[in-house]
Amino acid sequence: MNRRSALRNAGIASVLATGLAPAVHAQAAVRWRLASSFPKSLDTIYGGAEVFSKAVNALSAGRFEVVVHAAGALVPAFDVLDAVQSGTVEMAHTAPYYFYGRNQAFALGSAIPFGFNARQMNAWMLHGNGRRLMDDFYAGYNLLSFAGGNTGTQMGGWYLKEIRGVSDFKGMRMRLGGGLVGDVMTRMGAVALDMPGGEIYQALHQRSIDAAEWVGPYDDQKLGFNKVAPYYYYPGWWEGGLELDFFINRKAFAALPADLKAIVNAAASLAHADMLAKYDALNPNALKQLVMARTKVLPFPLPVLDAAFRAAMEVFAQNDTRSPEWKRIYADMRNFQRDQIFWFRFAEARFDSFMSAQRI
Amino acid sequence: MNRRSALRNAGIASVLATGLAPAVHAQAAVRWRLASSFPKSLDTIYGGAEVFSKAVNALSAGRFEVVVHAAGALVPAFDVLDAVQSGTVEMAHTAPYYFYGRNQAFALGSAIPFGFNARQMNAWMLHGNGRRLMDDFYAGYNLLSFAGGNTGTQMGGWYLKEIRGVSDFKGMRMRLGGGLVGDVMTRMGAVALDMPGGEIYQALHQRSIDAAEWVGPYDDQKLGFNKVAPYYYYPGWWEGGLELDFFINRKAFAALPADLKAIVNAAASLAHADMLAKYDALNPNALKQLVMARTKVLPFPLPVLDAAFRAAMEVFAQNDTRSPEWKRIYADMRNFQRDQIFWFRFAEARFDSFMSAQRI
């Protein structure tokens, strides 16, 4: 649909007929389908697409409608990339690292072990080369991307047994999201498994897995993992800040008039900011309840983090040889991250660490 | 201007005449004036209003224009509150804590010593009671607010002499932004002074002040403070995350049609996110250059932070007796902050502190 026909359909006929402004609830001139990789039960992440859809509607006075379909309703969770690429749907809401198996570079738009925290990711995406580099890469899949939420640093998952050292990961059957952390955990000796969130509880209960990571206190508590696994470790070093993205078919986007393009960008920005704020508002109470229910909330021992860091660096070096796109984007990301780590050591870290020691 | 007339003027006449969509550069139906409290030279913070204005224009296809006026062009920097309240201008871009002298509660919408970091402030504003409580208070000034940027944790300023302990603040003449940190510094024995950013260099050079705080590496380096003061301390414990706001006259906002109201909200959100990302992208290199130019970048000694924390708590208790609005909003803010500090101690702090120790 080109700009002229989009606007002509946007209730202009009724303006011509009545001389009045188009009604907000007029038939939308542009209707898109959004395929989410997430179930409705994951209200935090799935909800990002709903925030987006509502914002698009409000900003366009109803001229532009985006109908959100939960995972599996139109398209299976992990088929949304193909669906956007082929134009079956105009857009998706997903975690880019789900497509690590297609090309390692997808993970860089989402989260890599020992990568950015949420705020640093925003800096790279908005004022570094991040978004441009990712969209250059995504162009090979006929899509462009907008940030659509961040979880913040996730927790490190639920374990049947206490983690005393690196050797505890040897042979551990662990449910993990995303192929990159799977590569790193495999290098540490674990058996990386994937399964939908809804199957984790039963698998832990039946001891068919030894450990599982999902998201953080709010999402994890809803699935009741504390009832079947006593140990809850932090941090999720593979997700210092998981960015969710809106993937949009380039042809569909190009067909939008300029104002609706701007509306897509702004609505995504609203959804992006909303998700992290929602997580930060909801996680503290959930974590308190988990602690009160006698969950053992423990930091990974430092030797575990050190071993994971070394394993991650080995996987990254291997990825440099596997994917030229990974190599190019990763080099830029690392340079930017080096500066972020330098800068955050000063005012930000000192302020946060002082505050974390206060009783207020 | 009501919704109908706003839209009727929005190029609808040309639609009726030609049957074509309104041109993007048609005469704007709604024109607002924005008075900034900041000079153009402060491109980071002043730039937030420009990001907002461009977004409003793009999102509305030119139907809504917001003309940005730098501090002093229409209205002096600190008169923007009166100007919005009276309707002289429809909106302003400012730091709410500039109006602490009117009512202590203004500071809570901006930054208080040992308050939120940028991310926690977003959580309180978007998913806590923050925005609602502030807007209830701002209603007494005929205005409502939208977040319009955050600087992140600022640096603690430039000093002629090394800070060895709390006693070094006794009699220190220090340029400070905002009345609340002035109250706290006064309690620590300092002489709190205010002056525009453009006068700080000369005052330090002439030794008419002993210290001055401004923002952080990028903004501070541009003003050349390192050439006249050797010591640069961190963190700026009075600004763990300074939120800038858009103040909007309630009557002007109420007169907007629903889509333009949504556009104001979305454009503010874009400006808000952009500023922090811009600071994080620009500050590292500026700090590196300052270090290379032999600036002594040092953390405040812990006893100084402890004394400042105690002094701040005393001022806050006094504010409870001075302003019922402060008392009500502060109580809510503190409860929310207590939970944030609890939550951030786990995944987020552990991840960031591990990363800050890595060589990547």
Automatic annotation (TrEMBL), chains A, B:
Pfam families given in the database record: DctP
Recorded superkingdom: Bacteria
GO cellular component annotations of the record: tripartite ATP-independent periplasmic transporter complex
Transmembrane regions: none
GO MF term set: metal ion binding
InterPro entries in the record: DctP_fam (IPR018389), SBP_TakP-like (IPR026289), TRAP_DctP_sf (IPR038404)
BP GO terms, sorted: transmembrane transport
Name this protein carries in UniProt: ABC transporter substrate-binding protein
